[in-house]
Amino acid sequence: MAFIFTCGTHKFRSQMQGYENLQVQCQNCGNFSGHVMKLWEWFTFCFVPIIPFSLKPYPAVHCPICNFEQDLKYRPDVQQQVNGGGQAIPMQPGGQQGWNTRPPPPLPPGQGAQVYK
Ligand SMILES: [Zn+2]
Predict the structure, then answer these.
(1) How far is the CA of 49 from the centre of ligand 1 (A)?
(2) Which of 44, 102, 104, 114 has the maximum number of C-beta atoms within 10 A of its C-beta?
(3) Which domain holds residue 40?
(4) Considering the domain boundaries, does residue 101 fall inside one?
(5) Is 116 domain-assigned?
(6) pLDDT tens digits for 12-50?
(7) In angstroms, what is the span from residue 70 Cα to ligand 1's centroid?
(8) Does residue 59 lie in a domain region?
C-alpha cells in the first residue's frame, strides 16, 4: 500500500483596486487582454492551503486567453501605465539639452544620382 499525498499549489486571484479597466499586452500570446491581478500562491497539501509562498499577495498580469501569468515586476511597461495614470510624471531633468546638439551631417553632393566619369 502506498499513501498518495496530493501536494500542489493554489493561486488565489483577486482584482486589484484601480486596475480593473487596465488592459495590457500579454507577453505570451501577444493579445491586449491581460489584466493586473493580485496573486497569492499557497502550498497545498491534500488541496488545503498550508503555507503561503509569499507573505503578501503580489501584483501580476494575468491573461485569460492563454492563462499566462507574469509578475508585475517583470513588466516595467505596465508599471509605467499604472504610475502615469493618476499623476503627472515629472520629465527627466535637463531634458535633451547637452546631447544630440550636433547638426545632421550635410549630404554629400551627387548622392542618389551616381555619376561615373
Ligand atoms: Zn496570453
Answers:
(1) 27
(2) 44
(3) 7-83
(4) no
(5) no
(6) 999 988 888 899 999 999 999 999 999 999 999 998 999
(7) 10
(8) yes
